[in-house]
Request: fold
Amino acid sequence: MKTYKKWLPWAGMAAACALPFLFTSSYMHQILNMMLINGIITIGLYVIFGLTGIFSVAQAAFWGIGAYTAALLATRLGVPWYVCFLAAPIVAGIFGILLGAPTLRLKTHYLTMVTIAFAEVVRQVEVNWMGLTEGPNGIRNIPAPNLGSFILNTPQKYFFLGLLMLGLIVLLANRLRTSRLGRAMEAVRDDELAAEAMGVKLVWVKILAFALSAAFAGLAGAMYAHLIGYISPDVFHLEVAVQVLAMLLIGGRMSPYGAVLGAAVITVLPELLRGLQD
Reply:
């Protein structure tokens, strides 16, 4: 049974590599890419909600922060895409700390309300700070990633980069779950008083949960920016956070694999059933 569980993720990765060849439409390839991006955002929510028990709806804000970080670095400074992929989660993680630190004493719906307010503030900044974000006009001409002379300028080519990123994030989330920090997060989720009595440092655990969750969403933002080549504030709205929450709950909030499964169902299934809407 242990051997079966060990090789199951690798079998899933191998099967996923065949997905772009099952569809001939660039539109469906784009949907598959969005499935991967949504999977990474949902794993971020898994870290803070599934592992730590903190109900945050700020994932859309961190997604936007990561996307704008990558877009600005790439278009205004000419930074390579792989540096953008590193910088975006770092910047988003810093904002995660800035959100988490002042809200440590808040619980239940009060904390959720603060994260909603944070997400709306970030969106308003994206809309109104014309000198930085170009406001509603958005940022255009974000270059596609390249591997030497090989440019990932089609959704089908980009899929394999996205699949690699998702695989790394799933591996990291699994390592986190079985690590000392992951066990501390689960203890905080189950009973904060008991966790503190056992020596768990609640402050650091919660702040790290915010930072990691934001960093995963920030990476997804960088991936989205370089995939689409254009970003604008109307993408990073609060409805995205609600959708990501649905992905996590459908797949099962106690497992990173469940997060990926939920993202796949919510992203792909509506498109496959679109012909039945009438």
About this structure: The radius of gyration is 19 Å. The mean pLDDT is 88.
